[in-house]
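Quick note —
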Amino acid sequence: VQLQASGGGLVQPGGSLRLSCTASGSIFSINAMGWYRQAPGKQRELVTLITSGGSTTYADSVKGQFTISRDNAENAVYLQMNSLKPEDTAVYYCNAEIMSQGAKDYGTGYRSYWGQGTLVTVSS
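Predicted structure written out below.
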């Protein structure tokens, strides 16, 4: 099982970007999916989460600015980022709680998987 993130890049302040992340492999079930970010010199922080049922949670710093969505049929999660600010500059990581087919067969449950990170730079 692996997560592949894409969509980062350089954008001017006030601009928008859409990040995508797709899970692949021998997947039985996906629970929550989300995005974290790590700015230079700072710890990784939660940006937003979405449950399998579509309930969402956002960090206060991105409420009304970012929108998370998911496509359960595609095992994908997306992050629409609008009105970007220089302080949004970070490496963005997708995360998912996944039960692989093997975990189902052996009864070991869900585990957390991380994507490789995609850099978002907001600068003029």
